[in-house]
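sorry to bug you again but im stuck and you know this stuff better than me. what follows is a protein written twice so to speak, once as letters and once as structure tokens for the fold. id like you to explain what the token line says about the fold, in plain words if possible. anything you notice is useful, everything is just below.
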Amino acid sequence: MRLHSLTLAAAGAALLAPTMPPPTPPPTQEGAMAHREAGVSAADLLSKVRECAAVSRGRYRSDSGAPATIRVCEGRDAVFWKADMDIDCDGQRTRHCNGRTDPYFSAATAYQQSDGRHLSAERLPYIVVPAPSRIWSPLDHGIRGGSVAAVVYQGRVRYAVVGDVGPNDMIGEASYAAAEALGISPDPHGGGTASGVTYIVFTDTRVTPIEDHAAAVTAGERLAREFVHGKAFVPGN
């Protein structure tokens, strides 16, 4: 299990059978969101990240003490990396993210909501980027708090924002909510997955307010289509 993310405070069912079948309930928000997030397939995205044109000057570790093998690569208006997923449970104290559930819990995230509160790892799908270093500086590629990301794992695509900053020599971490959406165990103490996650972050993008996940999905779907097909792509053509 990786050390917790660095907080950069300055970086700112019916008893009786009915006589008529019940109406079909509307999709839950989660179900609707999952359907919307299926616009571009995992295979589509992965086909565009087979080759790595490295932008990092060196390689990152997946965990403390692990060998440095992970490069940050450049794609069409995006950067990407393939890594593990450790669980970030920092920010607002919630049922599953607090000092009892997470031995490395921090009540702060590098970026804050529009109301000034720190992000909720349990509610908001976000990813963690490494702090700037000689290996790579996210800001050099327009990556900052609120930048839009597509995260791919075992045939699933989910959209998120950049929401926290981690150690400058490690990469491969996302919030409780992001892991849960991807079918990865979100338990901050022993959850995550050791490999197989692809993170694609679209350069010079930003969701405002950062906590608006619906906006991140809308932007992510568009950006993912452009990443796969190019900006001239018109759906149905």
User: Anything to note?
Assistant: The mean pLDDT is 87. The first strand starts at residue 53 and ends at 54.
